[in-house]
């Protein structure tokens, strides 16, 4: 029977009537001999990936014949025995392969062979379709944010091939937390994209955990994403004071970072509801929560403590920070410069009240309280106290003024008046006090430790120590402008220097021909002290015009509080030195020299040249620098030094003066008489002596007379012009 099934031929021989007949037969003649239909079934992609057992391939051959079944892996016959089952119409063969070998296989073939038909085979591609290299990323899912009590990661894969896909979330590059399988029809789309979410169990919410997306496509193509690590960490936080200058409210901002942060506000152990909350997530998956609490400025100014608590349920940890006015105000900002200024002397006359000014200099002056005391008694704010708002300056400091009206009788009685600036976070304030001067300086306390830049120029500052000193009358001097200053423009600044006076309270103003000028015409500086000096100095600057003040007399007038008569200095004909005035020229003869005196000229530029007999030979002469007189005019002298060899009778010496467009010349020569003749012989070098004593005295008396006349003339002119 087995031979029949294998296709063996059987023959029958007979000899009826003496004739021999042969007939042969086999199974091929009894059944259809066409090639069989073969089906091969292999495990699914999901089974291959998820199962740890051997993989099994099944071959189903549709045939009546007892065909031989052969398995081939990657074109090579399998030596191991496959199972085989047969019925009347089918042969079933099963091939078992280890999962490791299966992952490395490219194809498997089932081959059927029999004598009755041509061999047939069926090959299945195990490697699957061609696989591109996809882009694999892992991130925390945005849908996780509203829940705030779960951990969801998202694997995002792009540029996938149209092949079966397996995605897994891997922890610490080893343990698979969850697996997902996707089937795609081969060739359906050139490149695919897919996102898959994975929920992380709470037992993995620990520090130092690393999460990675693992992608397998095809038989053995494995890809990994970048890893997210250290995402479960202790929370960190930042508590800030939001600038709110000029507002009636104060905003506090608290930010917390962790995997799942929650913020809670507390004030004096009472929970406060936040004004606003904002949630965002960074690339590394950590969440940032920012919460703002808006409170009244009055509540903030009280110095109450406000606490922000940031907790994370994933690790069951929390941290807190506390903020208050005092915590945000450094010690240096709790100090303030306090300067008290008494009334101006002219404002104390015939007044029932006088105004005392207190100036505070420092940062954030709105935080400071101002307290006035008169004779040691505290003055309520409702009693004659006016305090302005703070004024900001470019150097970061602020100034604030407070004014107190006191009775003039109290001021005249030398009552002590003090002003204190105090920060609510400081145990001590800064104070300055003043009283009407008795001839000694007031005491200024609590200023030696203060380092505040001075930004105000309208107040008089005082030293931080206490000394006693008598009144000092000021020295007043108007600084004479230089010729270059006078010639630069038609506007000139006169500077009045007031020095060596005490106390600091003085009044400075300017007068023109006896008329008081408005304060808009001049600027007074604050008083200052030189190092080691106990007296004060200050300056005042007045702008005048050349066209409007040609012959005017200007006075700098200084008055002290307790002085009866002012101290002043005058200047007349300020622009006289730059207004043209023709010079006067006189030529004098002295002993062995000639003197050319030029005076009464302006402007200062002048040229003096000496000539002998009209020649151009250089002569030995010297010209002094021009000197400015009280009337603003200039004078100058030029000396020509002579020897007896050149100062001969008949020789003419000329002094030529060039000033502006004017040229003046003065000549002098020695008379041609034997009385004044000096004889000498160049060959024998004979010395001739002449008595010149009488001549020298005459020249000296003449020069002295001219200088006395010029001086008297200048004094008379000055007195006439300054006469009121």
From TrEMBL:
It comes from the Eukaryota. It comes from Astatotilapia calliptera (Eastern happy). The lineage of its organism: Eukaryota, Metazoa, Chordata, Craniata, Vertebrata. Residues 36-125, 235-324, 330-435, 474-572, 576-669 form the Ig-like domain. Keywords: Immunoglobulin domain, Membrane, Transmembrane, Transmembrane helix. The chain crosses the membrane at residues 697-720. InterPro entries: Ig-like_dom (IPR007110), Ig-like_dom_sf (IPR036179), Ig-like_fold (IPR013783), Ig_C1-set (IPR003597), Immune_Resp_Modulators (IPR050380), Immunoglobulin_dom (IPR013151). This is Ig-like domain-containing protein.
